[in-house]
Amino acid sequence: MKKFFYNIDAKPVILIAKGKILKKELKKVRMNIPLLISELRQKGYQKVADVEYAILEPNGELSVIPKAQARPVQPSDLAITPSPTVLSFPIIIDGKLNDENLKYLNKDKKWLMTQLKAFNVEKIEDVLLAQVDSTGQLYVDKRDKNVKLPYIY
Contact 142/130 with Cβ under 8 angstroms? Predict the structure, then answer.
């Protein structure tokens, strides 16, 4: 994220209050609406309507306080104990095999090729990214040149 200003004596600037964008405050910090929307997306909020407050902190970072109904559900909200966090290990990056991580996971190339067939992949070179998490779950993102993209602002 681009830092907008940094001044140890600066005060936080409220950019969204009670779900409303404060254009005057945006102007003070030299931020436009498309940039604000981008920053909100990076924080996990697709709609301004889900944001109660957005505050540009003195260090240049954006803090987002969501509306109650848009707040991510917490395990404590459901009175459950979450499973442990798992770490993912890249085993293919941009068509290149990472032998070290494959070995670390006690897997071999034969295992990998069998798994890739389930994703309709014949060659490692056809994979942009493949990751295995510590539970053994495989994620595969194939190279795809024909992805249609929406105009997002």
Answer: no
d(CA 41, CA 48): 10
Which pair of tokens denotes residue 23? Answer: 């254009």
Task: Please tell me whether residue 84 adopts helix, strand or coil conformation.
Answer: coil
- 135, 121 in Cβ contact below 8 A? no
Name the one residue in this structure whose structure tokens are 């389930």.
Answer: 118
Alpha-carbon distance 29 to 43, whole Å?
A: 19
pLDDT tens-place string over residues 17-67: 988 999 999 998 999 999 999 999 999 998 888 999 999 998 889 999 999
The helix or strand, by DSSP H or E, that contains position 41, with its residue range, turns out to be helix 33-42
Give the pLDDT score at 1: 46
CA neighbor of 11 nearest in space, from 64, 66, 55: 55
Please name every residue paired with 66 in a beta bridge, in sequence order, or none if there are none.
51
CA distance 78 to 128: 37
The answer to whether 45 touches 66, Cβ cutoff 8 Å, is yes
At 5 the pLDDT is 52
